[in-house]
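wait is this the right file?? whatever heres the structure
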């Protein structure tokens, strides 16, 4: 299966080691002064959430580049298999996944297979700071248009910035995407300088887009590159129009015909080669591409022809609770085992302190030896879970009739009373007795293994 949803919250996004790495990278990349009258300062890669921005739920094609579970940069889907970002986002760090967030749907995680850096990139001067990240599967959202002509009279233009990362307090942003406006106050043949009065890029925003209205439509005109270490000065964007002919256009033309095939993730029909984007059943409903079919025709493995289209008869493979053997079997890249290490299922990260972190019938449990501390696992079935203690009496399935249910309840009550009397007579320890074992809020969670 090709695309994979992942958790909505991450704790400890920017650990001390990550911040130290970013600072070291910035010290190696001193830039010339970019603001009018501003003295030269040590610059930093602009890799974080926008300072002065607001939470953004309307730009699903602006994505987070992730390395080993932590966001390191921002990028923009500009072709079905291509994400535009900054060159230092693939040379200073090594993202292995792209996180794509669509409001109202589980997050998507897409594998990274390759990266192509602008051959003119100069890491010391931060010029030609552009790169494309190649995806292993087609992105489920429409590409964002890239400016195709010369950006006339850039100074004074307004742009919209979008990025993932820390906020003004430099605290972890829990993977929130933010947006904000800025004005272009300076330009060179390679870069655009943005005023710091409204919105400023910071750690984690590197590679994010500067969007401007061109001929009545919003297009990417710049890519976040760098700024000063305090994130309180002019932000520098690499402009695209001066790099179109030698780098941007040739790459995009080579990927123009890519489309999602049956089973790939999607958000609308137009993104699918077969013209159909369907919803799956199960505790984690996802959308996937499909093809029209004839009942006598063949469908891809795991699907069957129903109501004129190839569909999964149950939960889509790789979704929450489905069987797995390795992480790549899961859309979340998280394959864990609870209670019985030999039985593994696809999961997703969760937060035990956050209500609704897992869907109904799933518990947020601790995970042993995994990259995440807690994961959603299927809870015990109340129709099959045995009653614990010295006098087990468990239902083995739904009652066959109302009278059978009443009889069973009477037996349970009678046995409970007998055990209570016996417990008083034998002065059994207070932690033993009859009744189902329940997890009390705040008690130790179930354990799982990855």
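ok assuming it is, sequence goes like this
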């Amino acid at each position: 299966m090709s695309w994979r949803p992942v958790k909505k919250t991450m704790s400890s996004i920017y650990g001390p080691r990550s911040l130290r790495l970013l600072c070291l990278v910035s010290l190696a990349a001193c830039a010339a002064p970019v603001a009018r009258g501003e003295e030269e300062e040590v610059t930093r890669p602009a890799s974080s959430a926008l300072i002065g921005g607001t939470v953004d739920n309307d730009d699903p094609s602006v994505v987070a580049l992730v390395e080993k579970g932590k966001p390191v940069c921002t990028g923009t889907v500009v072709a079905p298999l291509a994400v535009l970002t900054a060159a230092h986002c693939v040379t200073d760090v090594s993202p292995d996944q792209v996180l794509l967030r669509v409001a109202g749907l589980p997050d998507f995680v897409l594998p990274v297979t390759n990266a192509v850096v602008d051959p003119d990139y100069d890491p010391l001067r931060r010029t030609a700071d552009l790169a494309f990240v190649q995806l292993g599967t087609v992105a489920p959202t429409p590409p964002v248009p890239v400016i195709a002509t010369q950006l006339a009279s850039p100074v004074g233009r307004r742009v919209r910035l979008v990025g993932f990362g820390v906020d003004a307090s430099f605290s972890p942003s829990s993977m929130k995407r933010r947006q904000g406006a800025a004005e272009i106050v300076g330009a060179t043949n390679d870069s655009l300088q943005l005023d710091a009065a409204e919105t400023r890029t910071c750690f984690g925003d590197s590679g994010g887009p500067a969007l401007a209205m061109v001929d009545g439509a919003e297009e990417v005109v710049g890519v976040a590159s760098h700024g000063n270490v305090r994130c309180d000065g002019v932000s520098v964007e690499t402009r695209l129009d001066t790099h179109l002919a030698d780098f941007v256009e040739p790459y995009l033309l080579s990927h123009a015909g890519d489309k999602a095939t049956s089973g790939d993730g999607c958000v609308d029909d137009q993104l699918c080669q077969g013209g159909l984007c369907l919803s799956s059943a199960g505790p984690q409903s996802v959308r996937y591409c499909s093809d029209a079919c004839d009942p006598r025709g063949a469908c891809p493995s795991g699907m069957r022809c129903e109501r004129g289209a190839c569909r999964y008869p149950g939960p889509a493979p790789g979704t929450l609770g489905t069987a797995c053997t390795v992480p790549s079997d899961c859309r979340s890249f998280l394959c864990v085992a609870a209670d019985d290490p030999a039985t593994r299922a696809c999961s997703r990260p969760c937060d035990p302190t956050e209500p609704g972190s897992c869907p109904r019938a799933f518990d947020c449990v601790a995970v042993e030896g995994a990259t995440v501390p807690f994961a959603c696992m299927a809870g015990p079935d109340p129709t099959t879970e045995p009653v614990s203690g010295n006098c087990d009496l468990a239902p083995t399935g739904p009652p066959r009739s109302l009278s059978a249910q009443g009889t069973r309840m009477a037996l349970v009550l009678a046995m409970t009373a007998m055990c209570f009397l016996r417990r008083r007579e034998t002065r059994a320890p207070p932690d033993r007795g009859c009744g189902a074992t329940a997890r009390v809020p705040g008690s130790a969670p179930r354990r799982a293994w990855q």
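Residues 4-254 form a domain with the Thrombin, subunit H fold (CATH 2.40.10.120). so i think its the right one actually
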